[in-house]
Design brief:
CATH class of the largest domain in chain A: Mainly Alpha
Distance between the termini of chain B: 81 Å
Helix content of chain A: 40-55%
Largest interface: A-B, 62 and 72 residues
CATH topology of one domain in chain B: Cytochrome Bc1 Complex, Chain C
Structural class of chain B: mainly alpha
Strand content of chain A: under 5%
Shape of chain B: globular
Strand content of chain B: 5-15%
Strand order of the largest sheet of chain B: 1-4
Number of strands of chain B: 8
Number of strands of chain A: 4
Order of helices and strands of chain B: HHEHEEHHHHHHEHHHEEHHHHEEHHHH
CATH superfamily of the largest domain in chain A: Cytochrome c-like domain
Distance between the termini of chain A: 50 Å
Order of helices and strands of chain A: HHHHEEHHHHHEEHHH
Structural class of chain A: mainly alpha
Oligomer: heterodimer
Low-confidence stretches of chain A: 35-46
Largest sheet of chain B: 2 strands, antiparallel
């Protein structure tokens, strides 16, 4: 106690107390928000996948999407959740396994987070929604498996990426801003299956690219190019976030000019 | 004294040359030329050295770069572009990057060097502005400097546009849009520059000539004149002991300054090379070749055009159509032509504006400390804040995405801030300057606050003031008392006839009041003497005076 008392006027004391308070508040928030996540029931072997999906849907999704998955309205007449009839299993798989659904909070855009449902549960939900009406189906792994992609396919993927994706997701898939707080998310860690599904269904602000627009082999080529962007070592040194000239300018003004002015000051001081 | 054989040979060689080209006398005089020393005087040097680096690395690049818009199919080392159709300009830049030994390093040194060049010019300009180094007789050199900055921007943009990658093409398309926004002549200018309705195949070869010959040639010539003027007008110096308007205190060019400057060149080259080797810049292979229907999120120019891009992004979409057929594109014309036009004109004319407003026609070789010219410093800070706000807006999409802020919120905040913040900065800077002037005055009168707290026997505390050093005293005493503002002219003379040039004189008087409406008076010699005396008296009094009544009152408790 005397140890603490003796140090209560130290300039570090305020910083330390602040840190303590921040950690405390953060910890309490983490505990509180963690406990609100929906808890799913364990799958039962006696029911079919579709029945299981319907059960999960009624528990976790029907508040917003309606008991029959045909959408629901809020009291003020705005849409609580859109109809899911015809969105297909690919849509459910994308939204649920990237954690976007169930929705954490309404906002400009639904954000990616840790998924709330296990793989089996997600598959059951997808099977249920898929059974309501025909729609885009979850792609088979061979569609987005890019092992053995040829340089020609890679070049095609690059061209298609720059023509269709870069305007929102940036030239290296780093993501970019859209209007009103919406954004195109970064693709640097997105799983190939999710990229394929996103192209298929066009979630949120993204346009969709059905097979009549981008053939399955085109989609695979694009995924191959995105993976190549991640794996290819950076020629020319450390990248500045692959965000273009703005971050290069920041590096110049801080590191570059900072170093030169430091040397200039050093030379000036030596003269005294 | 014995001399080595090498020295003898060197001496003989020199004599041989001097016999034919007698330069000894001249060199002796010139090499002894004195330059004052301050770190901020080296900012211009960074620009000069960057330019040399740019010439060297640019020459290397020109050996392989093909300024041609002929379509080719790429078959170089970079596999993800294999078989893609592109211009020869883009393909040769890829070759420089991937298939020519040292090519990528040289490209990156060239690009970082270009960013350094403009950055160094900018900070050099700020130094010259805030210290008042542009005052008579150096107004011409200021104008040359502003021209150099403009040319550097043009040269940089030309270089950015040459590789014909996606960002190059996007930038050029915006440049064409700006040309087209010029009323009446817009479309003619665009046709003239691009050789057709759209930026086609003529443009890259034209731009190449501009980039490697025309603009660098003019820059080189102007740098020469710039430096010759520095040489003949002599370098300015900061106030200090023994420094006057009539002398230059510093070190001789040879050997001290030559060694410093020479060494600094290698430091600049070294840092640029390090940047080129360590940090990727302008990865054109990721941007892809320019195709008019493509664009990437985060399309930005290099930093020095960023404020213009920001101005374009800031401007609301206002367009006036006259008689249903003539468009006045205010949304482009105002931010990209009118605002920069005003800024550069005002910048070039500033020395004359200040001279006219203050009526100051004398020569100035001693620099102002920024605080001692409050209005000028405030104008500079205000302009800088305006520039920085536009700069921020230039990266609005990246800020929005990085910090998860609504991009419209950023734009609207900055649209308001661009009118609110600069005037605020003006007022605040001016107040800070006056505050610092008062502090300087206090220091001259009472010395500096030593931080030594003394307690008197009677319980009083006081802080001891101590006299400032002679060096600091010389600096503080160098502040010239600002002249009184020019009086308002009489509208009518004694005979009731309106004065000639009354309006102009009135404006001049107004401007003069704007510059000199307020000042902290310099202490007179008598005041300083009295102040010092007073301070020592006070100290003596405080040290020995004992407040009897207080002592008695406190006594029972002790």
């Amino acid at each position: 106690m005397t140890y603490l008392l003796a140090r209560r006027r130290s300039p570090w004391a305020t910083a330390f107390l602040l840190l303590l308070a921040l950690v405390g508040i953060g910890g309490i928030y983490a505990l509180a928000s963690g406990s609100t996540q929906a808890e799913a029931t364990a799958p039962s072997a006696s029911t079919t996948q579709i029945d299981e999906g319907r059960k999960l849907f009624l528990e976790g999704c029907s508040t917003c999407h309606g008991l029959n998955a045909d959408g629901a309205f809020q009291l003020d007449g705005t849409i609580a959740g859109p109809t899911l009839i015809g969105v297909g299993s690919a849509s459910v798989d994308f939204q649920v396994s990237t954690g976007r659904m169930p929705l954490a909070a309404p906002g400009a855009q639904v954000e990616r987070k840790d998924p709330s449902y296990s793989d089996e549960e997600t598959a059951a939900l997808a099977a249920y929604i898929g059974s309501l009406a025909p729609g885009p189906e979850i792609p088979m792994p061979d569609l987005y498996d890019t092992t053995g992609i040829t340089p020609e396919e890679l070049a095609l993927g690059g061209q298609l990426f720059r023509a269709n994706c870069a305007q929102c997701h940036n030239f290296a898939g780093e993501g970019g801003a859209l209007t009103d707080g919406k954004y195109a998310p970064s693709l640097t860690e997105t799983e190939p299956r999710h990229i394929y599904e996103a192209m298929l269904i066009g979630p949120q602000n993204m346009p969709n690219f059905p097979d009549s627009t981008l053939r399955p082999e085109d989609k695979r080529a694009i995924i191959g190019y995105i993976e190549a962007l991640r794996e290819t070592p950076n020629s020319g040194g450390i990248d500045t976030g692959r965000l273009g000239p703005v971050t290069e300018g920041i590096v110049l003004w801080t590191l570059g000019l900072g170093a030169l002015i430091a040397v200039a000051i050093w030379i000036g001081v030596k003269a005294k | 004294m014995s001399t080595s054989k090498v020295e003898q040979a060197g001496g003989a060689g020199y004599l041989w040359v001097d016999d034919r080209v007698p330069a000894s006398k001249y060199l002796k005089k010139q090499l002894g030329k004195v330059f004052p020393d301050h770190w901020s005087f080296m900012l211009g040097e960074i620009a000069l050295y960057s330019f040399i680096i740019l010439l060297l690395s640019g020459t290397f690049l020109s050996l392989w770069f093909k300024p041609s818009m002929i379509e080719v199919v790429y078959d170089g080392s970079y596999l993800p572009l294999n078989g893609v159709k592109m211009s020869e300009a883009y393909a040769s830049t890829l070759d420089i990057s991937f298939d020519i030994r040292g090519g990528l390093l040289m490209r990156q040194i060239h690009h970082w060097g270009a960013l350094f060049f403009v950055a160094a010019i900018s900070v050099h300009l700020l130094r010259v502005f805030f210290t008042g180094a542009f005052r008579k007789p150096r107004e011409t050199n200021w104008i040359i400097g502003v021209t150099l900055l403009t040319l550097a921007l043009l040269e940089g943009f030309a270089g950015y546009s040459l590789p014909d990658d996606l960002l190059s093409g996007t930038g050029l398309r915006i440049a064409q849009g700006i040309m087209l926004s010029l009323p009446v002549v817009g479309s003619y200018v665009s046709f003239f520059v691009f050789g057709g309705e759209f930026p086609g195949t003529d443009f890259i070869p034209r731009l190449y000539t501009v980039h490697v010959l025309l603009v660098p040639g003019i820059i080189l010539a102007l740098i020469t004149v710039h430096l010759m003027l520095v040489w003949f007008q002599k370098h300015t110096q900061f106030p200090g002991p023994g420094r006057t308007q009539r002398n230059v205190v510093g070190y001789p060019l040879f050997p001290v300054y030559a060694a410093k400057a020479g060494g600094f060149f290698f430091v600049v080259f070294g840092v640029t090379a390090l940047m080129g080797g360590l940090f990727q810049i302008n990865p054109i292979w990721l941007y892809g070749p320019y195709i008019p229907d493509q664009i990437t999120a985060g399309s930005q120019p290099d930093w020095y055009i960023g404020w213009l891009d920001g101005a374009l992004r800031l401007m609301p979409n206002i367009e006036i159509v006259f008689f249903g057929q003539w468009n006045l594109m205010l949304n482009v014309l105002v931010p990209a032509v009118i605002v920069p036009g005003i800024i550069f004109t005002a910048m070039a004319l500033y020395p004359f504006i200040e001279q006219w407003a203050t009526g100051d026609k004398t020569h100035h070789h001693l620099l102002d400390r920024p605080r001692n010219a409050p209005t000028r410093t405030a104008i500079g800070a205000m302009s800088l804040s305006f520039y920085v706000l536009l700069w921020i807006q230039g990266g609005n999409d990246l800020i929005a995405n990085t910090f998860k802020i609504n991009i419209f919120v950023i734009t609207w905040t900055l649209r308001i801030a661009i009118f609110v913040v600069p005037p605020l900065v003006f007022v605040i800077t001016k107040r800070i300057c006056f505050g610092l002037q008062r502090r300087d005055r206090d220091k001259l009168l009472h010395g500096y606050e030593s931080g030594i707290i003394k307690r008197l026997p009677n319980g009083k505390y006081y802080e001891q003031h101590q006299p400032i050093s002679p060096e600091e005293r010389a600096v503080l005493l160098a502040r010239a008392e600002a002249p009184l503002p020019l009086p308002m002219p009489e509208k009518y003379d004694a005979n009731g006839i309106k004065q000639k040039g009354y309006g102009v004189k009135k404006l001049q008087s107004r401007l003069s009041h704007f510059f000199y409406n307020e000042q902290v008076p310099m202490p007179t010699a008598a005041e300083i003497e009295e102040g010092n005396h007073h301070e020592s008296e006070l100290t003596a009094e405080r040290n020995y005076e004992i407040d009897d009544a207080r002592t008695k009152a406190l006594a029972p408790h002790e």
